[in-house]
Give the backbone structure.
Amino acid sequence: MSHPAIRSAMDACADLDAAAGKVGTDSPVHALSLVDYEPEAIRDYQQQLTSAREELDGAIAEAEAARVEQGEASSGEANAEATAATDRDLAELRAERDRLQQLIKEVDGLAAKLDELAVATGAAATDVARRPEVADAVRTVLGGSWVDDVLGAEELDRAEGVVHAAVGEIVRLCVENERQRNALTDQLEHNLASAESGGVGSGGAEAGMGGGAEAGVGSGAAEGGAVGGGGPHQAD
């Protein structure tokens, strides 16, 4: 599922994409199609973390209830040892929950930053496609009826140059988008590793992130596709 801002930008680039195909340069629509970040995978991962936190809350509630019962029981060495063990368990569970809550906060922050990045990239690409000089050049290239006279050929050459430059600018926006996405997801993966080594019991959630969001968020797809620049036009 594409981000709405990216879909909007792809629509705005439709005519530029047709002109790009005609002059033999990269497809801006295909380049934009590679910048999305699989928001569904991020949301699934957030849900997994939330479920893990709820399980911890249940374990904490059970331990707290046991602690109350122990406090009401008769005194003695065995009860004192059991109470001390429950206190240790509670401390560990609460610390684990705190770490998990921090991880949830970081994932929420990542989702917000990725959303902002998609909006910014989509808006910038749309601005390029809607520039008056780009729109004029696209009309000239798609009209293409001047080639038979010298003045017309010169105008067509100029228009093709504008189309090439506009597409190049959009491709660079897509590459920069991916660079920033990779930086964000690399940071999250580092935090995941830190949280896991700290004892957060989210192995299942981590697997969900690695198998879903990671594949879409920082996959390097753009580097291997039309965003690489100089490849053949790919129509969507």
